[in-house]
Fold each of these.
Amino acid sequence: MSERLKTAFQRARDEGRSALVPFVTIGYPSVEATLEIVPELEAAGADVIELGVPFSDPLAEGPTIQKSSQHALDQGVSSETAMATVRRLREAGVTVPLVFMGYYNPILSYGLERYCRDAADAGADGLIVPDIPSEENAELKGFAESSGLGLIPLIAITSPGQRVRDACAAASGFIYCVGVLGVTGVGETAFDRVHGLVDEVRRHTQLPVGVGFGIRTEDDVRKVSGFADAAIVGSALVDVIGAGPEETSAERAGAFVRELAAGTRAS
């Protein structure tokens, strides 16, 4: 696990709260807006920030993130853009852990070793790759580990026990538990079922465990904070970013994440 990720989760634990992990799509509504939004999220209380790398076929995403991804692709955003964006964020003083959320095909096209090396050199801390199962990620895992990147798996509430064990064994950074039956942004979080999944995951790993998909409100964050180490918020934030002029997108995003951060202490 990268030191930044380890420190972020430990700090949240020391403060008696869950970590807050918001998601933004690189290049939505523009790269320059992303460079303004991310520091605002950090200042508002984000502990880790997921940076979505746009892809034409994001199979885990619902309409909101699909739309933001296509918008970014139309602006010419690429894997190279993602690397440059992280580098610029670090140069601007962002210290919060940054994790790429992207799909395997662009990584394969870029070159697995080169992608991991360039991501780490730019200042990224981990990778989430929804469309590569743990049974097939050994090569990517090796390059990620040698570059100091966490490789963060998604585990569904429908995952059988062996798959949960395999995913935990191959993971680094943290574990991402999916709280809905479906894609991002379209379902209600099945809190009871995902709570059970988190409990099962904890039997197989000492890594922090986060819950995402369907987390939209401060109350949702508070519920997750009662049993998980992190609440992950994507589509709801992307909706807020797109709900007004680009010039004020960072201000809206920061205000929304500040509201969510108030829920990180379980009642």
Note: Residues 182-186 have pLDDT under 50 and may be disordered.
Amino acid sequence: MFDLIIDTSYKYLYIALVKEGKVYRERMQEGNNNHSEMLTDRLNNLFKEANVSVNEVKRVIVGKGPGSYTGLRVAGTVAKVFAHCKNIPLWCFSSLDLLLSPYLNQDGTYVAYMDARRGGAFAKAVSIVDGIYQVILEDIYIPFSDLQSLYPDAIYINADDPKYAIGSLIEKGLIEEVKDVHSYVPNYLRSGV
């Protein structure tokens, strides 16, 4: 049985099939504000290429943001419909944790961020010591200059050059179950949204 991973929080559309914590097949594609046009086709292709049936998916794990409003809605809607129609659990993760995932076994202070336009950033800061992950700044919308002054010595991980280790994210327990699929709401962060 497989986990289906979906994240469209930023300019990259990321989908994967994970089996027993290991990536079985994954795809990442840069988009141009067109994730809504690409996602279902890319999912169909992923299942075909992997020779996996949708009936072999045991849960859906979706990036809840922060990030692009439309991107979050696209991934969230597809994930909710899939989970509801297949009567399987829906889980979610911070899209910033996905950026941090390759570093989860490396000690240091890390800041994962993505451009939120107008000089702002969606960001999260964590400290990893002896493999223990500790959040020092929860997912936030912040002016980028303020972020840089808060953590001048941190290692910055930019969403413009993503490298993901979704298996590490699952292994470290940085995913959470959505108790009611119908009440799932992405983490938009911006006020008024």
Note: The chain is about 25% helix and 40% strand.
Amino acid sequence: MNKIIIAAMAALLLAGVNCEAKTVKPVLKKVVYVTSLDCENCAKKIRENVSFEKGVKDLKVDVPTKRVTISFDSVKTDTASLRKSINKLGYSAKVVKYE
């Protein structure tokens, strides 16, 4: 009886082995936020914190225009998560361009 149960469990486990793994290729996207940052110290704070978020590939902050441009892997993050990361630092952010 135990051999039958073990054989049935092994068959069930092996049935899943033949499934093909689906790989999702990363898609590089770019988003531009307009923010409430005022100075280079604000820009530094955003650079130091948001650039280490999962999926962020490149981040540029332009203080005079108050814009933050982020290139990111859309499989690992999204625009809402990145905006929340900026908001957590105390700066308002809204999407003005998304590619």
Note: The two ends are 61 Å apart (CA to CA).
Amino acid sequence: MQYFKQVFRDMIKYLKSNKFIYSVLGIFLLLGVWQIGSMFMHEIMLATPLQAFKELFKMVQTDIFWFACWITAKRAFAGVLLGGIVGFVFGIFAGLNENVRNLFEPIRWMVMSVSPIIVVGIAMMWFGMGTEMVIFIAAFLLSPIVYVNTIKGIEMVDEKIVDMANVYKFSIFQKLKHIYIPALVGPLSAAMTIVITAGMRMIILAEVLGTNSGIGYEFSFAKTDMNTPQIFAWLIVTLAFVGIAEYLFFKPIENYFLRWKS
């Protein structure tokens, strides 16, 4: 209960800050550039903001819209969670043991270097077309980001503190709780935005190429029908997903752990 009260206080503080005001101004600037661009391009290529929001208003009144959003939200949550857990666990092992890190290095390099399109193709062969494929793609491509930042966080720990913990015979779990995990808050917080935005891109890409449901599928369907306002309406929905995930979910968690660290 205390956590949610603090989240609410943080939200109120943010809404009153200059950062929020300039963010709103930035949104209006973006809409202005979008409107100007639509004046110089054919409507089949770029819908106006008004057309996109009108289409979005019609879409939210349908069951198809809410079903697509629900499916994509579940996939995004599962993919980011699985990728985060895998990257964090392997990052802990690699950060604490240099030999393990060297062992994992070729795998890390391969995963971060392979094209997402290739991963999609392989996932379609392994899992077929559906939710499992989408979750696998997101987790596979996001886990190295968490893995690398976990290692960097462990490397930032002062060796003198570790030596002192050894003198007092701290167990590995005590070291993790009191030394390493607090040190990981900063690097993992910095990676959070990348994970959220990249995760959403991966989910949408996978849905476009290999599913029959979700936001990506509906986007692909609108593109096939050359329904430009609907295409940009789904773009707005995607941006809203990322904004909600980052500022209403992950940001409060980040602030909570930063306070815990201090």
Note: Residues 65-261 form a domain with the MetI-like fold fold (CATH 1.10.3720.10).
